[in-house]
């Protein structure tokens, strides 16, 4: 069995860790510097999102064609960038 010194150490640790976490991560400046940019990457702004979802078959086909064209364009640009990096 451990002595009272271990119990005092554990009690101090149990108190210290939550207080340290609150002081470190509860600062509003830290939140605005670290959390807000990540949130904006996860949840795009309203102007970058599609507001109306197509419900008809033709509308869905048009959206899929648009997605595929955008993906092909990104792939073409990436391949061009890789070729220019090789040269």
Secondary-structure topology with pairs:
Blueprint: H1 4-25, H2 28-42, H3 57-86
Characterization of this structure:
By secondary structure, the chain is mainly alpha-helical. The chain folds into two domains: 1-51, no CATH class; 54-86. Helix content is 77%, strand content 0%. It has three helices and no strands. It is elongated.
Short structural description:
Helices cover 77% and strands 0% of the residues. The protein is mostly helical.
Gross morphology is: elongated
Series of secondary-structure elements, N-terminal to C-terminal: HHH
Estimate what percentage of residues fall within beta strands.
under 5%
Strands, total number: 0
Spans of at least 5 consecutive residues whose pLDDT stays below 50 are none
* Average pLDDT score: 89
> How would you describe the oligomerization state of the chains in this entry?
single chain
Distance between the termini: 69 Å
Structural class: mainly alpha
Subcellular location: Membrane; Mitochondrion membrane
Coiled coil: 60-87
Signal peptide: 1-21
Pfam families: Pet100 (PF09803)
């Amino acid at each position: 069995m451990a002595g009272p010194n271990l119990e005092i150490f554990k009690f101090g640790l149990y108190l210290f860790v939550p207080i340290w976490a609150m002081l470190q991560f509860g600062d509003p400046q830290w939140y605005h510097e670290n959390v807000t940019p990540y949130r904006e990457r996860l949840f795009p702004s309203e102007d970058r999102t599609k507001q109306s979802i197509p419900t008809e078959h033709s509308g869905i086909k048009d959206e899929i064609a648009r997605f595929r064209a955008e993906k092909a364009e990104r792939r073409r640009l990436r391949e061009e960038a890789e070729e220019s990096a090789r040269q």
